[in-house]
């Protein structure tokens, strides 16, 4: 396994047949020569966070192993998004509905800030749709930027929601069947 890195990837969709899209995208990633799929969380149904949309999201988190460096992996993920019909419009700022969204959450213990990529993903601790599936598959994973486990970050976000510090994020675990 030398020369291989472990990567945690968030998958999301709120357009089309989201469950099939995420399953097909996960299989597509596993078929990539430089990637091996290790595990995929259950799907989670969530309301949009940080954007206005009437479409619910389906989200999951998966673990991959790769021989690629982080920015090369990003190129592969963006190519897979494009294959599934994702277009990244540069007009305006903010989030928009999408057929497929693939984000690198963690790349081993790498902390990186470049013009193309920030690792770990800067919004993990604010998003229940990331933390809930992450806790399902790797509860003791330690965030290299803050030193907290996935469980601790999840508990912290739930406490912030309970205290009214951040808006409540509704989430429901689903199945792939």
From TrEMBL:
The keyword Metal-binding does not apply. Residues 9-139 form the 7,8-dihydro-6-hydroxymethylpterin-pyrophosphokinase domain. Pathway: Cofactor biosynthesis; tetrahydrofolate biosynthesis; 2-amino-4-hydroxy-6-hydroxymethyl-7,8-dihydropteridine diphosphate from 7,8-dihydroneopterin triphosphate: step 4/4. Its EC number is 2.7.6.3. One of its GO terms (biological process) is folic acid biosynthetic process. It is an enzyme of class 2 (transferase). One of its GO terms (molecular function) is ATP binding. Keywords: ATP-binding, Folate biosynthesis, Kinase, Nucleotide-binding, Transferase. Pfam families: HPPK (PF01288). Belongs to the HPPK family. NCBIfam families: folK. Catalyzes the transfer of pyrophosphate from adenosine triphosphate (ATP) to 6-hydroxymethyl-7,8-dihydropterin, an enzymatic step in folate biosynthesis pathway. PANTHER family: 2-AMINO-4-HYDROXY-6-HYDROXYMETHYLDIHYDROPTERIDINE PYROPHOSPHOKINASE. This is 2-amino-4-hydroxy-6-hydroxymethyldihydropteridine pyrophosphokinase. It comes from Desulfocapsa sulfexigens (strain DSM 10523 / SB164P1).
